[in-house]
Structure formats: C-alpha cells, structure tokens
Amino acid sequence: MDATSVGAAPPEVVLYRARTAPWLRLAGAALILVLVVLAAAWNASLLARGDGPTSWSVLGSLLVIGLPAVLVVLGLRPAFSVTTRGITVTGQLGGRRIPWSDVQLVRISGRPQDRGGAEVVLHDGTVVRSPITAARFALRRGESPDDHGPDIRSPARPVRAAVDAHRRYLRGEFGAPAPRPLPAAPFEDRSRR
C-alpha cells in the first residue's frame, strides 16, 4: 500500500511560510564568521608574541563568538507557516502547531506592537499571535511593507494565506473538517438536595 491508500492521511503541503529573508540570514552568518576570524586572529597574535593562547583568551574568544551567535540564531528563528494541516507559529524559544480543527478564525492584530500581524483565535478563546507577520517585520520577511496598506491594518500575505487556507479547510479541500465540539450543557448536582 502507498501513501494515497484508503485511510492514509494526505501529505502535508506548505502553502505559505513567513520567516527571516535569506539576505538577512546570510548577514547573520557573515557576522558570526567575522567574529570567528577576529577571535582566531587575536589568539594567533598572542601565539606570535610568544604569550600563547591563554585560558582567558580562549574563554574571551568563546564569549565574543558565542553570545552574538546565540542572539543571531534566536533572532532568525521566528516563523509562521500555513499548511494543509494547520498553522505553525515559531518564536525565539518555542513554537506551537495548531491543527485547522482548533482554529475558530484568523484575524488582523490591532495591537500596536503587532499591528497588521496574524492572530489565530482558537475555539477555546485562546489567541495565538505571530510577531513575524506584523507590518514592522515585512522587510525582515523579504516582503513589502506596502502590503499592509497605508494604515497598516490591511491583510498582508501572512493573514491572507492563513484566512484562505482556513476557508479551504472549512470547505473540505484538505479532507473533511472535524466536527466542532458541542458546548457543554449545564450540570446540576441534585444529589445534595
């Protein structure tokens, strides 16, 4: 049997991905490379003078390379992916996969720090925000800030992709949408009367 057999889930297809633009990733890698070369040159100059690399110079080199490298990697990590199975929001330190069955709606954020970004509202009322989709990060994503409109409240690519995919899910294009859970009926405990 192959992956298209009865009962097998269709493969996940990425419909849209917002992440740091390739030119910015390259700049981050170049910064780390420059720091490595500077630290190596410093230790080589110590060796040439006859002082040799000391434990302090090695520790200093590791700090000069390590701290900025960690900050660069954390800065490049945020992403927002729309797939046929749901939405994945990745932050600096964590991430969350949200299946379409949990999504109530996708809307534009009006918060000043996330203006124009995507907000995913779940059926339980939880709001999941993705800062990388905000208007202020458009250039960082390699997109035009003009996509967000003059008032920065128009739906740009990330929001349009998520809304379109959610509509397609509700129409059943990604398989049958899961039935929504019924609200819980009020429960009275009559045993104590």
Can you put this structure into words, describing what you see?
It is a single chain. The protein is an alpha+beta fold. It folds into two domains: 20-76; 79-171, Roll (PH-domain like). The chain is 36% helix and 19% strand. It contains four helices and seven strands, in the order βααββββββαα. The chain has helices at residues 22-49, 55-76, 138-141, 157-171; strands at 14-19, 79-83, 86-90, 95-99, 103-108, 118-122, 127-130. The strands form two sheets. It has a four-stranded antiparallel sheet with strand order 1-2-3-4, covered by helices on one side. A three-stranded antiparallel sheet has the order 5-6-7, covered by helices on one side. Strand 6 (118-122) and strand 7 (127-130) form a beta hairpin. Helix 1 (22-49) packs antiparallel against helix 2. The longest helix has 28 residues, at 22-49. The chain is elongated. The relative contact order is 0.14. Residues 77-128 form the Low molecular weight protein antigen 6 PH domain. It holds the Pfam family bPH_6. The chain crosses the membrane at residues 23-44, 56-76. Residues 172-193 are annotated as: Disordered. Keywords: Membrane, Transmembrane, Transmembrane helix.
Q: So, CATH architecture of the largest domain?
A: Roll
CATH class of the largest domain: Mainly Beta
Strand order of the largest sheet: 1-2-3-4
The shape, in one word, is elongated
- Write the CATH fold name of the largest domain: PH-domain like
Per DSSP, the total helix count is 4
Determine the mean pLDDT. Answer: 83
Percentage of residues in DSSP E strands: 15-25%
**Which class of secondary structure composition applies to the elements?**
alpha+beta
Domain count: the total is 2
* Helical content (DSSP H or I, runs of 4+): 25-40%
Unreliable parts: 187-191
What is the first-to-last residue Cα distance?
A: 60 Å
**In total, how many beta strands?**
7
Radius of gyration: 24 Å
Major sheet attributes: 4 strands, antiparallel
Keywords: Membrane, Transmembrane, Transmembrane helix
Region (Disordered): 172-193
Domain Low molecular weight protein antigen 6 PH: 77-128
Transmembrane segments: 23-44, 56-76
